[in-house]
Amino acid sequence: MGSTPLLVVDDLHASAEGTEILKGVNLTVGEGEIHALMGPNGSGKSTLANVLFGHPGYAVTAGSILYRGGDIVEMSPDKRGRAGMFLGFQYPEEIPGVSVVNFLRTALANRTGTDYTVLELRLKVMEAMRELDIDPSFADRYLNEGFSGGERKRNEVLQMAVLEPELAVLDETDSGLDIDALRIVAEGVQRLATDQRSFLIITHYQRMLHYITPDVVHVFLDGKIIETGGADLAERIEESGYDTYRVGSTER
Domains of the chain by range and CATH? Predict the structure, then answer.
């Protein structure tokens, strides 16, 4: 582990259209760590993911986001991507007419500054597909067009394998997946986990964590992290729900 954490979120406040959604988020992710951020719908989890990646619909009103020691609050989304940050969307968009391999060629050129030939990129993609047990014909399909939920998420795992980010944030990547698709995504994440690559898995349910054991679990409620613990914290949430963490509860 490096001496400087990969990501440090310090007292982060953010709003959308004048309404405060993030209300003082504090989060530290070290190199090679897998973190799970768990909270009910409407708690602000996806807002945190969007703010981490510079979504223009949200305004940071206080606090800082340090990535590799530098504050990135003013950094554009494309520069965050080039710096090694990757966001897995809850609902990946279709891009008709753009094949998976051509999309990855453009994305990788932006990520690395190297313009790969079609052949070089195809070889790199095929190698990643073999490692992830993905059908080679996948490469020539239009991005997410006609893809099942599981195929869309598997495609995002392929993107991570090719782009090799240092920080991958998966925003409710388990949303709408059946058990087989969930396992495929989880196994892909496990294969890609290294001592240098960190994951922040944002989820409502504990079921993704049946397949991935996080190093750290956070409970996110009403715009901030209210408790942090080990993998057993996710199991307690599954047993008792989020109501025990709400203000005024006496059940904790």
Answer: 7-245 (3.40.50.300)
